[in-house]
Amino acid sequence: MALTLTDVTLTYPDGAGRLTALDQVNLHVPGGTIAAVTGPSGSGKSSLLAVAATLIRPDSGTVVLETDSGTTDLATLSRRAAATARRTSMGIVFQQANLIPSLTAIEQLEVTAHLGGPKRASRSETSTRAQELIAAVGLTEHAHKRPAQLSGGQRQRVNIARALMNNPALLVVDEPTSALDSERGAAIIDLITTIARTHQAATILVTHAPTHLHRMDAVYRMTDGHLTSIGVPTPA
Fold first, then answer.
1. Do the beta carbons of residue 46 and residue 178 sit within 8 Å?
2. CA distance to 14, 23, 50, 141, per residue, from 44 (Å)
3. Residue 142 phi/psi, 5° resolution?
4. Which CATH topology does 2-229 take?
5. What is the rounded CA–CA span in Å between residue 175 and residue 95?
6. How far is residue 126's CA from residue 122's CA, in Å, rounded to a whole number?
7. 29: alpha, beta or left, given left = phi > 0 and alpha = psi -120 to 50?
8. 0.90 surpassed by pTM
9. pLDDT tens, 69-122?
10. CA 74 to CA 227: how far, in whole Å?
């Protein structure tokens, strides 16, 4: 499993011209590794995640995802095929958990499995996997609580478990600690690094928190649409 972006360029309309959000970006993320992307607001980080997650099609370049089923250039997919790829091959963790208020923690995962595409698991298999992931994020005792009964850190843990429900080859994570204090943020980073490596998912993580960068496998900086490798810092 791996994700490879080659010469990816993305522009947006800007008055009479075009604004370049991504300028010939190259990135390779092998399965089981985490690439962190930092940089100022407006530098192109969110655009990079959107392209990797097939939410936006780039103007040019390739976005190749290697899975157990084969190799796909995500940049060439139709909207319907892209939606299928997101359900079956990707896990997306947004800044906010965006959980369904009426569902318990474990039901959030089970619903995701039912939306996962044509190869649906049996109800018992789905239930077993959901329980395993809830346990993996340390929420077994809270499995039957609804979002309003969970703390912010607990909701984000459910969010991460939900993203892993369909065994994604690609995990896309956007500022997972932005709404958390430093202790809970560190726990979330610990969880993401452990799970990404255990499940061999190629992971892109956007963060503004430099204290976590030494935990990553590779660190990049985005500036005005240009992506540059800056190396993994040593722990403070």
1. no
2. 15, 9, 10, 39
3. -115, 15
4. Rossmann fold (3.40.50)
5. 5
6. 6
7. beta
8. no
9. 889 999 999 999 999 899 888 999 887 778 999 999 999 999 888 775 545 567
10. 19
